[in-house]
Amino acid sequence: MVFTPSVIAALAMTGLWMFALINVTPIMLWLERRAPAFMQDRLGPNRLGPLGLFQAIADVLKFIFKEDVNPAGADKVLFLLAPTIGFVASLLTYLVIPFGPEVTVAGHTFPLVVIDSDAGMLLFLALSSLGVYGLVLAGYSSNNKWSMMGGIRASAQMVSYELALTIAVVAALIPAGSLNLSRVVEHQIAGNLLGFLPAWNVFTQPLGFLVFLVAAFAETNRTPFDLPEAESELVAGYHTEYGGLRMALFYMGEYQSMAILSALGATLFFGGWSLPGVDAAAAGAWIAGLPLIGAIGPGLGTALFGFSVLIVKTYIALFGFIWVRWTFPRFRYDQLMRLGWKVLLPLALLNFVVVAALAVAGKI
Amino acid sequence: MLLTVFALFAGVALVSAIVVVLHRNPVVSTMSLVVTLVATAGLFIMLGSPFLAALQILLYTGAILVLFLFVIMLLNVQRERTTTTRMSGMFIGAGICALVFAGALVRLFWSAYADTAVKPLDPEAFSLVSVARDLFATYLLPFEMIGLLLLVAVVAASWVAKKPESADDPDAIEVVKQGEPR
After folding, report:
1. How many residue contacts between A and B have a Cβ separation below 8 Å?
2. What kind and span of H or E run contains B114?
3. Is B27–A78 a contact, with Cβ atoms under 8 angstroms apart?
4. Under a CB-based contact definition with an 8 Å cutoff, are residues A75 and A140 in contact?
5. What is the C-alpha separation between A322 and A217, in angstroms, rounded?
6. Pick from A29, A27, A94: nearest CA to A251
7. Radius of gyration, alpha carbons of chain B
8. Which of A98, A237, A280, B140 could form an SS bridge with A229, CB 3.0 to 4.6 Å?
9. Contact B73 A119 (CB under 8 A)
10. Nearest CA distance, A233 vs chain B (angstrom)
């Protein structure tokens, strides 16, 4: 018997995540044109559909009808494989991010996370660390010096900033005492700070959050750390030779890893799927009682509530990504490396030691 | 079902391991090693230890092999050229290595099937908590000494890699000062 209730639940949750993650790209394509337009006092694309919403569809059509080019002298297999590797690695990490408490649907109780493992955070880091191969191989296989430079920069940058990111993440796990992200969220729901603030890690570890934020920008190759694709010096970096749908795969991989890291940041530092002062079970029962949605049951209502809260928090963070991109200029490469190794890593270690000492002293 | 999945992972690991040895392009060899390690991580998950699998991917494929690729690309290692040296010495060396490996395998299978009840891997022994307890309580001193050893190696490597300083420019490594135009 393969299709046990837990397998069906895992498949359903996977479908929900896939739907949300695939839709990140068109929404971000639109948002990344309209939001900076308003920041620069322009209108942006507003002709296609209401508010220019169909612009994303036009972009996708353009991607589809571009010629699929293989550059001369390229390593064919690696050249075709590279965009897929980056895309798949960024698509897999949703597996360990929880979007609700344990719920009961049709008599079966299960947690609202695809892999409920005590090694959850480790699995996330492991899978997300595979993403760098897509960039490196694209740079190597294109037989183009700009691609090569971009690939080398990408690998050095992502390996460097992964250290600071990981140490900041570990410090955020210490108060909950578990690598299971469900426990981390539960720990942030319980209690409050000074009587009015929710017990989110961002309030107890502001330094750790700052390190996580900067490292997340570097990990996703976003401005001000988009050195691997710096267009003023490298044409387009590692994806110079790619066009059409393969180029679109790189775009989708980038937006998905941004969305996943945003969801992880919301889970670690902003209470994940919870809203302060709102009981998830009560909210689920209320959603199940709504006339239009109908009788989906309080368990599914809770799932819907948690997922919506997490997605809203994710999109707030994604808007932050765009906001920063159109505010800060690009770093120089030696500045990037100096910031990573001489500033962020010591700060992350300091934060880690202070949090660990407080935890040993029993203050957390 | 389980046997099929095992055969899949084991087959992929074996084939890609052979490609690692035989392929003449070092980048393809490195990528095949990535596939081997990921397939082995899949075997760890089948043995009931997602923790070991995560560590395997995180450390080997996520960090070490990226550095391999980085070095290969930075040094611009070319496709291996056809060798012109005499092969007889190589064959003797390879034969001795194969014999030693075969002996180790025979010894392993002998002990594994000597008592017919093969013991499965105890998932508790490789869980996060027990590994952490082993590392940071039982074997704390060796663990810290390995850390010190690695630190010494890193310092030595960076000293060896440092360019010789010229007399008139005491800060020869850091040519570009912060804020200066290049």
Report:
1. 85
2. helix B88-114
3. yes
4. yes
5. 11
6. A29
7. 23
8. A237
9. no
10. 14
| Cis peptide leading into residue B123 (ω within 30°) | no
Integer Cα distance of A264 and A172 in angstroms: 11
Across the interface, of A119, A123, A151, the residue whose CB is closest to B73 is A151
Q: Hey, what are A195's tokens?
A: 């009587």
Please list every residue in chain B whose beta carbon sits closer than 8 Å to the beta carbon of residue A156: 70
Nearest alpha carbon to residue A28 among A218, A264, A260: A260
Are the beta carbons of B66 and A159 closer than 8 angstroms? yes
Burial of A87-97, coded b for 16+ CB within 10 Å and e otherwise, reads bbbbbbbbbbb
A151 contacts on B by Cβ (under 8 Å):
73
Rounded (5°) CA angle A14-B4-A80: 60
**Whole-number Å distance between alpha carbons of A195 and A203:** 13
What is the distance between the terminal CA atoms of chain A, rounded to a whole angstrom?
45
Provide the ipTM. 0.76
Q: What is the pLDDT of residues B51-108, one digit of tens each?
A: 888 888 888 888 888 888 878 877 766 666 655 566 677 788 888 999 999 999 888 8
Q: Which of A207, A171, A201 is nearest to A186 (CA)?
A: A201
Instruction: Please list, residue by residue across A28-65, b when 16 or more beta carbons sit within 10 angstroms of its beta carbon and e when fewer do.
Output: bbbbbbbbbbeeeeeebbeeeeeebeebbeebeeebee
Residue with structure tokens 């909210």?
A: A283
* Residue A190 main-chain phi, psi, to 5 deg: -70, 130
Distance CA B134, CA A209 (A): 31
Q: Where do the DSSP E strands lie in chain A? A: 102-105, 108-111, 192-193, 197-198
pTM: 0.81
**DSSP-based three-state secondary structure for A105:** strand
Comparing alpha-carbon positions, the chain B residue that sits nearest to A160 is B63
